[in-house]
Amino acid sequence: MAVPLALTHGEDQKGWRRNQHLVDSLPYIDSLTPAEKRAVDQLIEEEMRSSSKRPSDYLGDLEPLPESRIAGNELLEKEMARAAAGEAMQAMDTFRYNLEPPQPSKRNDVAAWRAALDNAYAQLEHQYNRLLNLELLLKFGPDAWRAHNEQLAAFVARLQAQLADVRRRVDDLNRERKLQQHAAGAELGQLEAEYLGLVHKNAEIEGACRGLEAEVAAMRDALPAELQQKLEQQQQRREEADAEAEADLMQV
């Protein structure tokens, strides 16, 4: 399917920004003179000086963002509010990992010693689980990490292939546009040359006609009064006949 060279005039076009000016130029062939560039830069500077918009106001011209998936999640909303307020994240409580004896005032309390003993058993189980995890990591970790790296490499390869495909399609599109615009530029140049030639030719014909009219007027002035009157009568009858013929054509 051929890509249009420019936007079609007279049709509704939807842009990515509200109230934008649609550009229908042909950038590959439209030349920009230094004077035109200075004029454009001056217009931009004048608009920037007269505009009351702040940089953040331009975001309002963009399409609204998709609905956030954070809404409705109490934990995420709380963390977002904390980050927005600049508050530090609460540190992890490591007190329960300590192995402390009962306080001096409770050294003779059996319940306090039983709680300390239960905590020691729990800490021992935690350490045992850590040792098991370390043994599993030493045994299966290298293979698992190698498989994970292979998955990441395959994922990166897919992304690179997609990126290369997008770049290829962009290059193909730009190449097609460039070829079409250069072909249109040659045709436009030929038409412009023909137009200028016709304008020049019409100017020459107009100048020749004015010269002939001046010669005819001079010849009429040189004729006797009686012949001038006859010529004027013939001219009047000719104009009346032309008017009648035109009226008949209008009726038909």
UniProtKB/TrEMBL annotation:
Query: Which residues fall in a compositionally biased region of kind Acidic residues?
Result: 241-252
Q: Which family does it belong to?
A: Belongs to the SPF27 family.
Organism from which the protein derives: Chlorella vulgaris
Name listed for the protein in its UniProt record: Pre-mRNA-splicing factor SPF27
- GO CC terms in record: catalytic step 2 spliceosome; precatalytic spliceosome; Prp19 complex
Supply the alphabetized keyword list.
mRNA processing, mRNA splicing, Nucleus, Spliceosome
Among InterPro entries, the record links this protein to:
SPF27
Its domain of life reads Eukaryota
Pfam families xref list = BCAS2
Q: Does the keyword Nucleus apply?
A: yes
Question: Where is coiled-coil annotated?
Answer: none
**Localization, UniProt:** Nucleus
Q: Which GO terms describe its biological process?
A: mRNA processing; RNA splicing
Where is the segment annotated Disordered? 227-252
